[in-house]
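Researcher: I'm preparing a figure for a lab meeting and need a structural model of a single chain. I don't have an experimental structure, so a prediction will have to do for now. The sequence is pasted below. Please return the structure as tokens so I can convert it later.
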Amino acid sequence: MAERTEREVLQHLIEICRDGERGFRAAAEHVSQPELQTLFKHLAVQRKRFADDLVPHLQRMGANPDDGSGAATLHRGWIHLKAAVPGSHDHAIVTEAKRGEHAALDTYKDALNGMLPPTVSDLVETQCDAIEAATERIRTIDMGYA
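Model: Understood. Here is the structure written out token by token.
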């Protein structure tokens, strides 16, 4: 996150969380395995909570959050497209979820190594740890398809 302001970093983290929420909801709707549905629904709720927890910090800086990124819309479109293809689409959706989690994790790590208000760094670190755990869980599921 080269040369981003604290406000921009927080804004981006909120976008990532909202994108994750919508992406996980879409994934939960399209997988067939109940365990995956439950996991993706749980992660969607978690990402909503993450965004909600970050919003007050952004508002204290005089800004309001945007409503997600265009890249996430494209990512959700891929999930919908892969779900429409007959066959084992659960694996394709898990693979997309894994890719999205890696992107979220990279964003969080960049934030922790860059411009971040000191009042929010503990919260962001806790959220980053949770995203890292989710990434590992999804990676393990994805390896089960190999």
